Amino acid sequence: MKKHFRLVIEEETFQYERDEEQIAREAALDGIYVIRTSLAAKELSSEQVVHWYKRLSVVERAFRSLKTVDLKVRPINHRKADRVRAHVLLCMLAYYVEWHMRQALAPMLFDDDDTETAQASRPSVVAPAQRSPRALRKAATKRTDAGMPVHSFQTLLADLGTVAKNRIRPTLAGAPEFDRITTPTPLQQRAFDLLGIRLFP
């Protein structure tokens, strides 16, 4: 608030008055959001500046995911700097894997998997982001286009976590032990197909 006042501070006196000119200049900008960049217009247009500024929300979401929701990087219970760096590196790699998984699994998640259509429906980059008709349909019906239930990333991982590899020890004398993977449900198989994972040779 200091910029809105003129101060006179002396040995035994203190005087102040409102800087009406400065207040009027600031009031003229009420409701206006200004984004500045050091890049030249030929490198980044005004629309691109706004677009990339708005993409900061992705970075903020990543930090939220790292610290609390998915990966829980905090608290870090290491004392040595190299161990802290190694811990954070592993968490960043884990987030990198999660990001790619979300991209591949988007048709099964509440995430918008048709961002191009969503972007095209916005009258300008300044306008609020829109969800695509496909994402709105998934949210309303709780079903994918293939009729499967829509998941959050966490609930889908929990569902995939029920696939198990069992070690079988036959009671027949001399029969060797072998491993058997439980048969995935159609939903689990769809997720594995999207991720390019083959459970069986």
Describe this structure in words.
It is built from 8 helices and 4 strands; from the N terminus they run ββαααααααββα. The chain is mainly alpha-helical and 201 residues long. It folds into 2 domains: 1-32, no CATH class; 33-195, no CATH class. The strands form 2 sheets. A two-stranded antiparallel ribbon has the order 1-2. A two-stranded antiparallel ribbon has the order 3-4. A hairpin with a 4-residue loop joins β1 (5-9) and β2 (14-18). The termini are far apart.
Short description:
This protein has helices at 20-27, 46-54, 56-69, 81-105, 115-120, 133-141, 153-160, 186-195; strands spanning 5-9, 14-18, 165-168, 178-181. It has 201 residues and is mainly α.
Uncertain spans: none
The chain-level structural class is mainly alpha
Mean pLDDT: 88
What strand line-up does the widest sheet have? Answer: 1-2
Rounded to the nearest angstrom, the radius of gyration is: 27 Å
Total count of helical runs of at least 4 residues = 8
- Largest sheet: number of strands, sense, barrel closure: 2 strands, antiparallel
**Number of discrete domains:** 2
Q: Could you say which overall geometry the principal axes of the C-alpha atoms support?
A: elongated
Please count the beta strands (DSSP E, at least 2 residues each). 4
Element-by-element helix/strand order: EEHHHHHHHEEH
Share of residues in strands: 5-15%
Distance N terminus to C terminus? Answer: 69 Å
- The helix fraction, in percent, is 40-55%
